[in-house]
Design goal:
alpha/beta; eight-stranded parallel β-sheet; two-stranded antiparallel ribbon; 13% strand; globular; oxidoreductase; Aldo/keto reductase; AKR
Amino acid sequence: MSLTTTLKLNNGTEIPAVGLGVYKAEPGDEVYHAVRSALELGYRHIDTASLYANEEGVGQAIIDSGIPRDDIFVTTKVWNDEQGYEETKAAFKSSLERLQMDYVDLYLVHWPVPGTFTETYKALEEIYRDGKAKAIGVSNFEPHHVEELLKEAEITPVVNQVELHPQLQQQAVRDFCEKHDIKVEAWAPLGKARYFDHPVLQDLAVKHNKKPAQIIVRWQYQSGIITIPKSVHKERQQENVNIFDFELSKEDIEKIKGMDADKRLGAHPDEFDYGV
């Protein structure tokens, strides 16, 4: 088990179970050095989005790393004001140009823009059929959004990336996605470090001689959740993923389960300001 350990998606594509998220990593030097250091540490999964305005730095870091492109799993996403069939195809082309890539490994609909996301997803299906994305999926979709999508979609999403951490465990979304063979991926997987002092995490950290962040990432890993903790600091990147030398017991996992408080750090998808 290592940073190259993968999970198989429903189309047969393999995704590294643990990756690096680059949300809020500044364009230019900051994101460039964050990706370079992560790759040096053994990360092989990088998650970006057009919204983050840092695709150029991600792409350049991957090129300069000297690691073969096929050895790195790259995700990007289409933002809300880029959605629609033709608009999405144009947005994807721009993302590829910024990344300096011929394809991405995973392309996601970033949020379910009402009245538009099914058309957006049709564009993703065409991109997938053209071989420009190895897999396609969604982000921030509630079960009812996925159900609406599946009525028209010809290709089942491989992933639903949602806010998920010990205080927002998304069990209903996870159960629904499991039923439809869709992997769940966690954004804000560490809860933005806002409750590392929680007694359960503190106790488990002492028990396993680990940091609270490592307990969380290990819990997600053992739960079959793809996770993309973000950090621009090499030592923190290393720390976040130093999770392969211990295992949480069933009792440990039950204790973490008890932390669930349905507490969001971001907006609920049904209450998000889509501006439409």
